[in-house]
Specification:
Two copies of one chain form a homodimer. Chain A is α/β, with parallel strands linked by helices and 274 residues long. Chain A folds into two domains: 99 residues, Rossmann fold, CATH 3.40.50; 148 residues, 3-Layer(aba) Sandwich (Rossmann fold). Chain A is built from eleven helices and eight strands. In chain A, the strands form two sheets. Chain A has a four-stranded parallel beta sheet with strand order 2-1-3-4, with helices on both faces. In chain A, helix 1 links the parallel strand 1 and strand 2. In chain A, helix 2 packs parallel to helix 3, helix 5 runs antiparallel to helix 6 and helix 6 crosses helix 11. Chain A starts with a strand and ends in an 8-residue tail after the last helix. Chains A and B meet through helix 1, helix 4, helix 5, helix 6 and helix 11 of A and helix 1, helix 4, helix 5, helix 6 and helix 11 of B.
Chain lengths: 274, 274
């Protein structure tokens, strides 16, 4: 089977085309795709250069590329459409029905989706990111009253990346607090957390997976030993049960899934959608 | 004009539906939409609950909702399709042409796009996030040899959120280094940066905007004074010119745009696409 090239074309960042294309292509098993993002196609020259790249891939691969496009400007879209590829454009497909439904013409202007059209939403994402950093790992501020969610878990259970993702993608204020010997020995969670009990979510993970992740960080020593990993996870689970903290098993989940399940479980609202 | 409700339905996280819907809706000026994400629709009960929610929004709003769906499983899609809404489904539209092009049936299985189908790509994102944190703000490790890009800029020019976004979205290793009086007084960049000159990107920002952002952090004092902000930005720009560091003005750009332009400018490769 020849390897296909997939292009993500955009007059803006290409994030939407990438996300869409990635989703659709995962529906085809056992395929490998070479992926190329061509963002900021906002001139005839760039549109023509994109056509050249698509055509060369077609000739190199011996099979035409798949082209996911979010080009809103007709003039550039019409240039690119002539390339030797399967052209799939979201605006082609969805703008028509929406214009009819909303009884309004779309603007066909580039750069709106991930543009600075909404400074307020930009600031929310930045502030949420700063919050996540300041409240990381039981960090400096412990400003849990304004948190939307507070993640609990042992070291390397996925707390930090999840908090950062929640901040950047949804503007959600996510703090995290590591469960360590201090909590295990006392068998209790600190009051500062218990006051915000409805915001708590516990992250769990399979011992073998956690061990693998910890070994990436520190190959030797107790930290990544099977015994230690199993001990910490067992104690963490006890703690979650004791306080009725909902648990999410991160073993099989991506950052997006963990985040989405946290919002689902706590009912925390997405402040923005990136 | 009555306010519309927009639903993002998914048998997984809803990220693709949100991204797609957001992109398309920004093409309609002056509209406000109430946004509701309904993820993990993976049972008849949940599909029926979604129908109820859509129908009540229709009746409350006096106008039918817009429904962006990425439901891959026909049984649930067929339930939801009957709700009182404009149903726009990416799989409806794109799977057909792709199946024909690839001469392969799609799996119609849920949970592949942002699922843990690819542990390697998950690990890359996590490792890149850890790298960004360790190399934040001229931080501890200064492991610039393995960085893909190194962002330079004054305090609050957008370095940290951009590095984290590059890590989470693309698995790119992004470090950042703050320009302060130390560099301005000497008029030089440290050798450790100059050794990696091809990885450097300078972030600039309009003085009034930077002042506004800094005031959020510290309302009073020199840090957010007009004079200080203008001085630092002028010195930073001198530095970028002196060393031929490409500049990106973040004033009007979203995190996605800044990130995409950085990759474009340095030629750094996306290690994954989230």
């Amino acid at each position: 089977m020849s390897e296909r090239t997939v292009f993500f074309l955009s007059d803006q960042t290409g994030v939407t085309a990438e996300t869409l294309g990635h989703s659709v292509l995962t529906q085809f098993d056992g395929r490998q795709f070479r992926q190329v993002t061509l963002p900021f196609i906002d001139s005839d020259d760039k549109a023509m250069a994109a056509v050249d790249q698509i055509n060369s891939a077609a000739s190199n691969d011996g099979v035409r590329p798949i082209v996911f496009s979010t080009l809103v400007q007709d003039e550039f879209r019409n240039v690119v459409r002539k390339a030797e590829g399967l052209f799939l454009d979201i605006f082609d497909v969805f703008l028509g029905p929406l214009e009819e439904e909303l009884e309004q013409q779309s603007t066909h202007e580039a750069g709106r989706a991930h543009g600075m059209s909404n400074i307020e939403s930009y600031m929310k994402r930045i502030e949420a990111t700063n919050f996540a950093l300041a409240n990381d790992d039981g960090g400096i501020t412990r400003n849990y009253e304004v948190a939307d969610v507070i993640l609990l878990g042992v070291s390397r259970s996925g707390k930090t990346p999840t908090c950062l993702y929640l901040a950047l993608q949804y503007g959600v204020y996510a703090a995290n607090f590591p469960l360590t010997d201090e909590e295990f020995d006392s068998g209790t969670l600190p009051d500062i957390l218990l006051k915000q009990k409805h915001k708590l979510v516990g992250l769990t993970i399979a011992p073998t997976r956690l061990q693998q992740i910890r070994k990436e960080r520190r190959a030797l020593g107790q930290y990544s030993s099977a015994q230690q990993v199993r001990y910490e996870l067992r104690e963490a689970e006890k703690m979650f049960k004791k306080y009725g903290v909902p648990q999410i098993d991160t073993t099989e989940f991506s950052i997006e899934e963990i985040s989405s399940r946290i919002l689902d479980s706590t009912g925390a609202e997405r402040r923005v959608r990136a």
